UniProtKB/TrEMBL annotation:
The keyword Nucleotidyltransferase does not apply. This is Complex I subunit 5 family protein. Residues 132-456 form the NADH:quinone oxidoreductase/Mrp antiporter transmembrane domain. GO terms for cellular component: plasma membrane. It is a multi-pass membrane protein. The chain crosses the membrane at residues 6-22, 29-50, 70-99, 111-130, 166-186, 206-229, 236-256, 262-285, 297-318, 330-351, 406-428, 440-461, 481-503. Its main location: membrane. It is found in: Cell membrane. Coiled coil: none annotated. Keywords: Cell membrane, Membrane, Transmembrane, Transmembrane helix.
Length: 535
């Protein structure tokens, strides 16, 4: 079977980036090419999803570039996990592109906004599809280099300061990641994820003794710190508020809705798939236990993930409650919400049964999807408010329900989705997080999740009452939201509602993604066995 569909999304995003760069002098042509490229990317992702079939057989496909077979060549891998991440990323990216066409001024679009956006999408796509850790680093850099410029897009002092912090921290993270990658190669002799997985699972069969494989734990910890930095997990969250507030609204929507999920995906793929069978001796933490059929290395990260998730939920929630502007509230909220995504992963890492491991990973995927849609909607709603009124500071707002009812309704749906009100998709995501914690009787996890849920209600209630309720001041009365911007916000709100009503499909896709993350053997066989097309 021809497997070109695996590389199709990457090629479409790359060709669109080049095409928008070549047409930058022709404003309307460039915007049209960018939007068509976004549609083409969505179509390519749909082609990939239909072939992987996450609701049915859920196969794993590998594509060997230039005919160099794994583990020696560059491998792209598509399975239900990567398909799930690509699917909602493609929808959010298209919505952000449509929003950008009206939100970003003509001069801004001319100075390479669209090429940068699509190159960032290239990096995201490559990260979701790559089959080796070194190329994961490469795609991270493609994604980050584009985002560096987009964060500082408006070039003011505040934006430059935010971009400087963002760049320096990520450059340090990149250096640490390279150090870890070099150490892994020196220790195991490979960087292909499938090959690395089978080597750490049975080191003796590949001439690696226990003493030689032991450094994998320390090297994996360096990688983990980098992935946590990309995801904005506490204590690596300090770059998030400034970067999100500095970037244009559609860029903030992409950073929070999609780019952050690359870090989460890397944690799932590397620690649940690649290191999922690494049994290292002498690994221990207070209160840490390894299930009979579990991995010592993976279970080691259970308490670590829990502490970071709990800290993110608390720091993000408390920080959001005290903000006086919509973007600041949403930025801190993103820190708290990524904690909700990682919390069930902490449970899955030390889960006593395969059923609970699947539930934990599926809960994380469902919550990631909901957060991707809802937070993107909210950042674009904030951008529409700023475009109409000239500010998104709460003291200057109020009464938007009277002057912009559709925009207010869209914001309200996004807020309810993150709070977890049925029948929206956020209700099911939050319910699965509580379900996973309840299955293992983890009272600390239940307590943190409940506290985080209360904080979410508090800061969104405050945002609604101060920004959208009440009598509109003169500034709001004279503002008028653009139809195209409001239409994108309403479309995303409808998508959130549809995902909730048709949640059975979402859950089946998330469970397929969880099984793909945990089925190490099938992944290894697909990449190193007889799978793989040729370029």
């Amino acid at each position: 079977m021809s497997q070109q569909f695996v590389v199709a999304p990457l090629l479409v995003a790359l060709l669109t980036a080049i095409a928008t760069l070549l047409t930058r002098r022709f404003d309307r042509v460039q915007v049209s090419v960018s939007l068509l490229g976004g549609l083409g990317y969505l179509g390519a992702v749909a082609w990939l999803v239909s072939n992987v079939d996450p609701l049915g057989t859920a196969d794993v496909f590998s594509y060997q570039l230039s005919g160099w077979q794994a583990p020696f060549g560059i491998t792209l891998v598509a399975d239900s996990l990567s398909a799930f991440m690509l699917a909602f990323s493609a929808v959010v990216a298209l919505a952000a592109l449509v929003f950008s066409a009206s939100y970003v001024d003509t001069y801004g679009q001319r100075v390479s906004y669209h090429p940068l956006f699509h190159f960032m999408l290239v990096g995201v796509t490559g990260s979701f599809l790559t089959g080796d850790i070194f190329n994961l680093f490469v795609w991270f850099e493609v994604m980050l280099m584009s985002s560096y410029v987009l964060v500082v897009f408006y070039s003011g002092p505040e934006h430059t300061r935010a971009a400087l912090h963002y760049v320096v921290l990520n450059l340090v993270g990149s250096a640490v990641m390279l150090l870890a990658i070099g150490g892994l190669y020196a220790t195991t002799g490979t960087l292909n994820m499938a090959d690395l997985s089978r080597r750490v699972a049975d080191p003796a069969a590949y001439g690696l003794g226990g003493g030689e494989i032991a450094p994998v734990l320390g090297l994996s910890a360096l990688l983990f710190a980098v992935f946590a930095l990309k995801a904005g997990l506490a204590p690596f969250q300090f770059w998030v508020p400034a970067a999100y507030r500095a970037a244009p609204a559609p860029v903030s929507a992409m950073l929070a809705g999609v780019v952050k999920k690359v870090g989460v995906y890397a944690i799932i793929r590397v620690y649940f798939t690649v290191f999922g069978a690494a049994a290292l001796s002498g690994v221990s933490l207070p209160g840490f236990a390894v299930p009979d059929d579990g991995s010592a290395l993976l279970a080691f990260y259970g308490p670590v993930l829990f502490v970071m998730a709990a800290a993110s939920i608390i720091v993000g929630g408390v920080g959001a409650v005290g903000r006086d502007d919509i973007d600041g509230l949403l930025a801190y909220s993103s820190i708290g919400q990524v904690g909700f995504i990682v919390l069930p992963l902490a449970i899955a890492a030390t889960a006593p049964t395969e059923e609970i491991r699947v539930l934990g990973v599926a809960a994380a995927l469902v919550y990631a999807l909901n957060h991707g849609f809802a937070k993107s909607l909210l950042f674009m709603a904030s951008g529409a408010v700023y475009d109409a009124v000239g500010t998104e500071q709460f003291p200057d707002l109020g009464g938007l329900t009277e002057t912009a009812p559709w925009l207010s309704g869209g914001f309200f749906v996004g807020a309810l989705a993150l709070i977890g009100i049925p029948p929206l998709s956020g209700f099911f995501g939050k319910m699965l997080v509580f379900d996973a914690a309840g299955r293992v009787e983890s009272w600390p996890a239940l307590g943190v999740a409940l506290f985080g849920a209360i904080l979410t209600i508090a800061y969104f209630s405050r945002a609604w009452t101060r920004g959208f309720w009440g009598d509109p001041p003169l500034l709001v009365q004279h503002g008028e939201a653009k139809f195209s911007l409001v239409a994108v916000v309403v479309a995303l709100a409808l998508a959130i509602a549809v995902l909730g009503v048709g949640f059975d499909v979402v859950m089946r896709a998330a469970e397929a993604g969880a099984h793909a993350a945990l089925d190490r053997q099938e992944y290894v066989e697909a990449v190193l066995g007889n799978g793989g097309g040729h370029a």
